[in-house]
Amino acid sequence: MDVKMKSRGIGLNFFVLSFFVFSSILPLSFSAANQPRSFKKPDHHFGSSAVFPVQGNVYPLGHYTVSLNMGYPPKLFDLDIDSGSDLTWVQCDAPCKGCTKPNDQLYKPKNNLVRCVDQLCAEVQLTTDHHCATPDDQCDYEVEYADNGSSLGVLVQDYVPLQFTNGSVVRPRIAFGCGYDQKFSGSTSPPSTAGVLGLGSGSASILSQLHSLGLIRNVVGHCLSGRGGGFLFFGDDLIPSSGIVWTPMLPDSSEKYYSAGPAELFFNGKPTAVKGLELIFDSGSSYTYFNSQAYQAIVDLVSNDLKGKQLKRAIEDPSLPVCWKGAKSFKSLSDVTNYFKPLSLSFTKKKNVKMQLPPEAYLIVTKYGNVCLGILDGTEVGLENLNIIGDISLQDKMVIYDNEKQQIGWVSTNCDRLPKS
């Protein structure tokens, strides 16, 4: 969903609202290049995982990224990880609008455009009446996001070399977008990343393509550190054998993001009036968003609990809508967490399934030395009644999206330590 603040303004790049097919813009006559031999399917078949170090933080950067080798010869691209969308795209070395990277950091197609008649092209269309003027038409795409940001480009297929935890190396050909017309919302600078790594469950995602090639199980997970960094993995090899809390995914084949619920909000271990929440787990959102009613209830609960304590509203802090200041500037969350009570989400479809949200999972300390609420009003910014669990609430947890068993799991862990691979 890519819900961003600060570095990107408020960007609600959650589920893809629409795909459109445009007339051919890029020529098909890209120069050919020597290509490596096609990979052979490994003997382990579904027995391993690919692990990627993650960079970034919730504040002040506002996003988490991975560096992924793509193309031949392979080149590293830093991509914003986004479990709220499925199409991966990189900035394209073509006549370009809204591209922020220098030419040597752009992806250059080499006679490898996906044709319009390809089944994968049909998979990324909004309607079922996908039509190609001629069989050799290229597969154009446009991803439009809820904040009016977008990426326009062409679908390509290229090598994405991967090393698995069992030591094997494969070079599958994966389809992804080569974007040459990006639009970004708000008045802030465009993001510094080269594109988006779509981790959603749609057929166009890298995860789904790797699974269809028989390389991994259809499982993806991430572990985002509250101190910055962490790791991302494809496959099920790293899932702990015990300790994980699982809840079913909501069955909704029309969307490609991960949702669960209904859930009830607890404050300091006690139930609240906020019930029936359907929640989208979104690694592309910096903060957590609730609908207006739930959001206002949380603000009231937290504010009322702070009465009589040494905190006052810091209305002059522009970082987030609701901030507080103390007698002196705060340097870290450890200075303020004792003022705040924990939240939790109880998933009512399964007994005793709760996601704990300690103060560290919903607060930030700003550069001004104040503490701010990292839970925002989603209705106010165009999410209507959707509720998003963003990075701030996913930190210091291994979060697993198991598309085969249709369940989402999490367990508190040390995300600073990269698994051995």
UniProtKB/TrEMBL annotation:
Would you say which domain of life the source belongs to? Eukaryota
What the entry lists under Pfam families is as follows: TAXi_C (PF14541), TAXi_N (PF14543)
Query: Which PROSITE patterns would you find in this protein's record?
Result: ASP_PROTEASE, PEPTIDASE_A1
**Molecular-function GO terms, alphabetical:** aspartic-type endopeptidase activity
Q: Where is the signal peptide?
A: none
Q: Which GO terms describe its biological process?
A: proteolysis
**Residues at the active site:** 82, 282
Key words of the record: Aspartyl protease, Hydrolase, Protease, Repeat, Signal
Q: Where is the Peptidase A1 domain?
A: 64-411
Family, similarity comment? Belongs to the peptidase A1 family.
Protein name in the entry: Aspartic proteinase Asp1
